[in-house]
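Table 4 source record.
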Amino acid sequence: MKKREIMTMKMESRSENEEFARVVVAVFAARLDPTVEEIDDIKTAVSEAVTNAVIHGYRNGEGIITLEAAIEENILTLTISDEGVGIADVEQAMEPMFTTEPEERSGMGFSFMEAFMDQVEVISAPGKGTSVTMRKKIGR
């Protein structure tokens, strides 16, 4: 039986940290020997979650984004959280094309996360921030 491995990282809410988060998660997930496609899926989902925290969570202002990654057996679990403005209606926010900034954003962030990961759970409350937990089984 494999033991659980975990990694936690805190980063400033800056758009350039999105690429950094992608690389860190890819390296961490590499120990599961994923396919190139699986790595690309994971990196895309992380990009969307971190970008949401920067743009919507902190409204491009200052704040801290926490990235937690865990491996147990062949399941990768990622949690990206912020302490930003939060989401009043998570169900509505997760609908394809829903956005609070229609002139700039497509509203597809959560849809991409759901398409590329096996499971996506969003917990949020106004004024309390948002936590996005995503799981993916590596190697079918």
